[in-house]
Amino acid sequence: MKKFPDDFVDKLQEQIFEESKETYGEEVFSRWQKPRFMGRMTDASSVGRVTGTCGDTMEIYLRIRDEKIQEASFFTDGCGSSVACGSVAAELATGKEFDEAGLIGGDTILGVLKGLPEEEHHCAYLAAEALQVAIHEWMFQGSKAEEK
Predict the structure, then answer these.
(1) CA nearest 81: which of 116, 131, 51?
(2) Confidence (pTM)
(3) Using 50, 70 and 90 to split pLDDT, how confident is the model at 61?
(4) Hey, where are the domains in the chain?
(5) Which of 131, 58, 144 is nearest to 96 (CA)?
(6) Alpha carbon distance 57, 88 (integer Å)
(7) What distance in Å separates the CA atoms of residue 98 and residue 102, rounded to the nearest whole number?
(8) Are 83 and 31 in contact (CB under 8 A)?
(9) CATH architecture of the domain covering 4-147
(10) Residues 130, 74 contacting (CB under 8 angstroms)
């Protein structure tokens, strides 16, 4: 039998999780609890880093070979919504050619998450912008390397 504080904390945590699932939906909750593709990539080909007006910073890391995104990951210091959006952005970018990845926007990410409250839609646009910055950085670096 659990002691009062432990039992109380467990029940409170369960209630918070249930309310979060109701508010954000199962997909957002799942990616917040177990984010996929999260982590800084030490040998990335390109990195996009953007800080939003909310103060959250989103970093998207790309490993690129033969003009294709072989692998993507993200890191954020932001809220659970930012974590979920970064996870989706990295997942959608992985395996894509630049022209395909360039079409991934905030609306694309919101479509996958289905349920992000409107006041947190900016997190999806932050993740998409960081992805676009990483793509543009690679394209700029690639063209400079070719000039030499």
Answers:
(1) 116
(2) 0.86
(3) very high
(4) 4-147
(5) 131
(6) 16
(7) 6
(8) yes
(9) Alpha-Beta Complex (3.90)
(10) yes
